[in-house]
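Q: HTH-type transcriptional regulator CynR, please. Structure only.
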Amino acid sequence: MDLKQLEYFVRVAELGSFTRASHALGVVQPALSRQIRALEVELRQHLLLRNGRGAVPTEAGKVLLAHARGILHQVARAREELGRVRGALAGRVAIGLPPSLARTLAVPLTRAFRRALPEATLSIGEGLTVAMLEALVQGHLDLVLAYNPPALADVTFEPLFDEALVLVQRRTPGLAEDPPLPLTLREVAALPLVIPSRPNALRVQVDAAMAALGCKPRIELEIDGVAAILELVADGVGAAILSPHAVAASPHAATLAARPIVEPALHAHVALATCDRRPATLTQQAAADVIRQLCRQRFGAPPAARPPTPAMAPAAPPR
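A: Structure for HTH-type transcriptional regulator CynR:
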């Protein structure tokens, strides 16, 4: 067997489809199938079970998948070590960012990454925390900035910063630019809200906090996706509970007003997630350092470590 066959096999097994793997690898599907078949013939075992929904590893395939991931990782590490010999770290690092943070951090992160790792390749993806953590575990992402992450096996969460959630409303025309007055959470409960549907963690957090006060949110509309929520708020449909970064990054920011929420305040916790199944390469470790330094510069010192959200709870507000 050769490295190309292992890489093809791993990609098909992880994506669960020859078609998706063909697109991801940039290889025509017949050639991909031939390489996988050659690997099966050499090992005298069926590695993938084809069905109408795609392809899943057989028991033998699961064994090989664990070994193949390790082999490919060690090859990447060897290439990095050779790069160090000639004075540079190389390789690809895939980082997942929530959309609101992507708008805030993507440009400075790219600049800092290029300064620190000029011979490495950076890939930035956007998504909700739950989906990005799944991609992290599956090996599609190397590092993830996660909002209110749930407890997950094989994933380590390092606190980066906290941010207070705010009530976002359409700005009243002609309203003076005075500091916005805070609202109690009980007052927020009386307002029509545009909010994600359950089991989104922001929704769960709001429901639980209001229930502790003996009230519940007044839901005007349930919708997932920060951009859509902010558009509806700007259109006057209702108010929203979001992070200040989501508001600042919105094209509707000039028409929106953010008010602090008190008694009690609501906070989003942002953590750096890494997968314990695959030891970080030197380039990934350096990229994580870049993220830590950038977040410290922009948001201050990281908070004390806290246990992640229980696994039964959903993972994150939309960003």
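A: Brief note, in case it's useful. Residues 12 and 141 are 16 Å apart (CA to CA).
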